[in-house]
Amino acid sequence: LPKVPGYPFVLMGVLGTATVVWGVITGNYFGQELGGPLGRLKLDWFTDDNLMGLCFLIGAIHLTIAHVWNVIRIINTPQALAQVGWILITWFMMFLARYFVLGEALPAIVLGMGGFGLVLILLFMTPVRRLKAEFINHAMLPLDIVSNFVDVVSYVRLFAVGMASLKVAQSFNGMALQLGWEKIWTVPFIALILIAGHVLNIILAALGILVHAVRLNTLEFSNHIGLEWAGFKYDPFRKRHDNKS
C-alpha cells in the first residue's frame, strides 16, 4: 500500500487547535456565547474593529516580508533602497486603511514615513543606465501605490470569512430552535439540523481559510516579491496521441 503523507493530518491538527483556541478567547462555541467558567475565558479585546485592525496588521507584516526578501536578494544594489521605500509605503497604507475603515486618527509621523518612502522609490526604483528604457515604471507608479493600498485592505477578507462562518452557525442554531423543544418528535430533527449544519459550516470554513490563504500568497505576496507564475496553454480539446506500442 502507498504511504499516506502526513502533512494533511498536521494541517488539520493545526487548524483544529487554532479553531478551538480562537473560539475560547473570542467566546464563541458553535455560534453561541456561554457563561460560567468558559465565558470568563473570553478576551474583551476581540471586537469587530480590533479584528479588522488585526487583519490590516497581518497584511502589512506579510507584505513587508516580501519586500525584506527583495532587499536581501539585491542588498548590494541601489534598488534595495527602493524596496525599503515600499516597506514604508506599505505601513503607511496600513495606517491609512485604519483611518478610512476604522476612523482612527492618522499620526503625523506616518505622513512623513509615506513621503520618505515615496522619495526612495522614485530615486532608486530604476537604475540610471536603464532609466530611458524603463521610464514607464515611473509612469505606472501612481497605480502601483494605489494597488499597494488595495492589497493591504484585501486582508480584511480574513475577518469576513470568520464573520460569515459565525453567521452561518447562528442561522442553523436559529433554525433548530424554531422547531421548539416541547414535542419529543422534534428532538431528532433539531439534532440533525445542528449536526449537519455545523459540520457543513466547519467544512466551508476550512475551505475558505485554505482558499484565501492561497490567494493572499499567490497574488498579493507574489506581486510584492515580484514572482511571476508560469503555466501551460489551456487547450482542452487538443487530441492526444499515445506513443506506446
Concise summary:
The chain is mainly α and 245 residues long. Helix content is 70%, strand content 0%.
What does this structure look like?
It is built from nine helices and no strands. It has 245 residues and is mainly α. It folds into two domains: 1-46; 47-225, no CATH class. The longest helix has 40 residues, at 186-225. It is extended and about 80 Å long. The relative contact order is 0.10. The mean pLDDT is 89.
Could you name the ranges where pLDDT drops below 50 across 5 or more consecutive residues?
none
Helix content: over 70%
| Oligomeric state of shown chains | single chain
Helix count equals: 9
Q: How far is the first residue's CA from the last residue's CA?
A: 29 Å
Radius of gyration: 25 Å
Overall body shape: extended
Beta strands, count: 0
Features:
mainly alpha; 9 helices; 245 residues; 0% strand; 70% helix
List the SSEs and their pairings.
Blueprint: H1 7-26, H2 36-40, H3 48-73, H4 79-102, H5 108-124, H6 136-139, H7 141-153, H8 157-179, H9 186-225
Helix pairs in contact: 3-4, 3-9, 4-5, 4-7, 8-9
